[in-house]
Write a structure and sequence with these properties.
Mean pLDDT: 91
Largest sheet: 10 strands, mixed
Shape: globular
Oligomer: single chain
Helix content: 25-40%
Structural class: alpha+beta
Low-confidence stretches: none
């Protein structure tokens, strides 16, 4: 008789997206297995940036304090032409944002993965299955079955789960099972990415990220944590990968800034930067997240961030469906909300790519504000989630906060940030005390009577009562807690939310 591992959720892929999902689900009591083809995480640099909203998710899974020790607050990005003139400035706020963190960070991805996996190891209800390649996915009534091969022993392994989530990258097997077609948004370029370790201090390189906008060879410089620096450079038509990536050629390309006497090459790799969005994010009990669902050029530093937003949105929905608090159709709201949000970041990155390549400066500069010096400045975009049955907005307007992240104040009485009190749960905030008897156990109620700092949160939202979901997005606003409970009841009726 074959041996089968049974869990509530199987995650395929153990990068930052899969590991974050495992932490979120494990923290709310869902049994999880994480299956990955690799025996351990990749030890060299990959993702190098994340933002305040992403850090807020890392706060939720309990790694933010340790992560702060090995990251760097980012000053921002500057776009320069071939003559060194500033075309576009993207400064990043050095104060703490409304999310409770700095706007932008630089990281060494293995540091993040180490902390995420350490978090998983503390959860008794989460296990991992490294060195296993999934070969088939079959959905049956009430569950989904995965068959894979242990790459060390060559034995077949079986997993039975209520749901499977593919965090398995651009060539996702789970996406192929769902229906693997992607909407190609038109960006497709080969770039060489070179990570260096400095041998000596080079403060003249600067602490800003620099986009060298050029019609001949666009390049990017990133100031990463510690002694790490990164250059990315476009590969031109006719150049062969094996030639351009040879160390002597790499140093020739970098000779304007740095030499072998200054640094060693830690890693060089050729990437094809693409822009694409999966047409389908769910089929029955199978879903996808991260690069399996979307691909973006790196010019906004939002690739990993978008995947972390995916799983923050998805985890609480999976938990509620598995615990029969939601109807399974709630999972359709995942793509409805996340796909338009991801598309907004991808399209903005494509516009910035046009500026960097000096091919379409007009589109990028249309997003910016002109300055007296003749250059321009931009701010980070803040797109709304796509509309779904788990949000209520009436009337909707340009500054409508529904579908956007709520602020995270510091609560003096508790001497901590708001999310540390709430955990990964729903939150009702109102001016006056809310009738908790009318709320479900999945909702925490807090009033400005008890916690005065919440008045500023409500003032920012222009309301007296707000429903904030576990992913920290505003679900609904009302002028009183009673109205909010009524709104909550309406959504219950529409989506069978929180059914007893």
């Amino acid at each position: 008789m074959r041996e089968t591992t049974e869990v509530e959720v199987a995650i395929v892929g153990y990068g930052p997206t899969g590991a974050t999902l495992a932490n979120l689900l494990g923290s709310v009591g869902i049994s999880v297995i994480v299956i990955d083809r690799e025996s351990s995480f990749y030890p060299l640099p990959r993702a190098v940036h994340f933002d305040d909203e992403t850090m807020r998710v890392f706060q939720t899974v309990g790694i933010s304090d340790e992560l702060r020790k090995c990251i760097r607050v980012n000053l921002g990005m500057r776009f320069q032409d071939d003559q060194g003139r500033l075309l576009l400035d993207w400064p990043r706020d050095q104060s703490i944002t409304q999310q409770g963190w700095h706007a932008s960070y630089r990281l060494h991805q293995p540091d993040l993965e180490r902390l995420l996996r350490a978090g998983v190891s503390k959860l008794d209800n989460v296990t991992d299955m490294p060195g296993c390649e999934i070969q088939s996915i079959i959905e049956n009534e009430g569950h989904i079955e995965l068959a894979g091969r242990n790459l060390s022993t060559n034995k077949t392994v079986f997993v039975k789960a209520q749901y499977v989530v593919g965090c398995d990258g651009a060539n996702s097997l789970v996406r192929s099972y769902i229906g693997g077609d992607m909407d190609d948004l038109g960006f497709n370029e080969r770039w060489l990415v070179v990570d260096l370790l400095l041998k000596r201090q080079r403060p003249d390189l600067g602490d800003h990220s620099i986009q060298f906008c050029s019609a001949t060879r666009p390049m990017t410089y990133c100031r990463n944590p510690g002694d790490r620096r990164r250059w990315e450079m476009a590969i031109l038509a006719g150049e062969r990968d094996e030639d351009i990536s040879e160390n002597s050629n790499v140093w020739k390309l970098l000779s304007r800034w740095i030499t072998p006497e200054d640094a060693t090459i830690e890693r060089s790799a050729i990437y094809t930067f693409k822009s694409a969005l999966a047409f389908r994010w769910r089929k029955g009990r199978a879903l996808i997240a991260g690069d399996a669902a979307h691909l973006t050029p790196p010019f906004m530093g939002q690739g990993m961030c978008t995947g972390i937003r995916d799983v923050s949105n998805l985890a609480w929905k999976l938990k509620a469906v598995i615990r029969q608090q939601f109807d399974s159709s709630l999972l359709d709201s995942y793509q409805a909300e996340r796909a338009p949000h991801a598309r907004a970041y991808i399209e903005t990155a494509i516009s910035l790519g046009g500026l960097i390549n000096s091919l379409d400066q007009k589109s990028a500069l249309q997003m910016a504000q002109r300055r007296a010096a003749g250059n321009a400045t931009i701010k980070s975009i803040q797109p709304k989630l796509g509309p779904s049955a788990v949000m209520y907005s009436e009337p909707e307007h340009d500054k409508d906060p529904v579908g956007r992240p709520a602020a995270q104040p510091i609560i003096a009485r508790a001497q901590c940030k708001l999310d540390d009190i709430v955990g990964y749960k729903h939150l009702f905030v109102s001016r006056e005390a809310c009738d908790a008897d009318n709320l479900d156990k999945e909702i925490i109620s807090m009033s400005a009577d008890q916690y005065p700092e919440l008045n500023s949160l409500l003032d920012q939202l222009g309301t007296n009562a707000v429903w904030i979901r576990p992913d920290r997005y505003v679900a609904a606003i009302s002028q009183s807690s009673e109205d909010l409970i009524t709104t909550h009841s309406v959504l219950k009726a529409k989506t069978t939310l929180f059914r007893k």
